Amino acid sequence: METIDTIQEMRRFLAGRDGLVALVPTMGYLHEGHASLMREARRRADTVVASVFVNPIQFGVGEDLESYPRDLERDRLIAGEAGADVIFAPTVAEMYPQGYQSFVNVEGITGRLCGASRPGHFRGVTTVVTKLLNIVQPGIALFGMKDFQQLAVIRTMVADLNMNVEIVGMPIVREPDGLALSSRNARLDDAQRKSALCLSRALFAAKEAFSRGERSAATLSALALAPIGAEVEAQVDYLELCDSATLEPVTTADEKTLLALAVKIGTVRLIDNCILGEE
Ligand code: PAF
Predict the structure, then answer these.
(1) What is the CATH number of the domain that holds 78?
(2) Least crowded by CB within 10 Å, which of 92, 187, 223, 263?
(3) What integer pLDDT is reported at residue 16 of this predicted model?
(4) Does residue 26's CB lie within 6 angstroms of at least one atom of ligand 1?
(5) How remote is the CA of residue 129 from the centroid of ligand 1, in Å?
(6) Pair (141, 53) in one structural domain
């Protein structure tokens, strides 16, 4: 499988191929969640491009840009096995050359949840995703639902800016004990890995109460917060019940209500979510 690091080479590679192109944008340190996106891309498209780029402009000051795990050799193996045809792994200078000054900003839906605690994050995401879509010009692009708000922001951008691409959202992949797969899990030590289970426990506690008929968002939030409060290393960034279409907070939950949370385990910030009425 080829690895390409320039935009010109990427365009040359794609110019020689017919049929539907799928793009799976990633920041690398691939795991089974990414692999599931690539397998679905393989199923649907003739050419599968996986991008691996740790995008500096979506990290804020003091966030984990430097410590974000990276291993391109390992990524090549995982992507190849999952059916990618090529990895596009540009350098920062290739994506943001000197004099770079253009950004894409989605308003409204980026103001809450991760957007509230990470100002500028989604501007970085929508900018790099726009650039990747312009470079690869795929018919479909696949994203994981663990970043629920990211998926909603990208869908909004694609609709608002009439971008000619279908956005496909794929289910969260979890470890057998419930932990949602994330590249950042690699930064947890053994004790923190155990503490991190409080995120999925929070979701399951709220889902269980919802299935028994509880509809008060305040009560469901309190039940979800309990397992997190029990972990000394865990610090809640946000935990919210929201409308899954608008991401606006709700006071009464229904089948489609999203429970979204971000929790810091030591210095590692993890996110997770569920739709209360879904299996
Ligand atoms: O979800 C991610 O890994 C990143 O935010 C993305 C979409 C690849 C943009 O850098």
Answers:
(1) 3.40.50.620
(2) 92
(3) 85
(4) yes
(5) 8
(6) yes
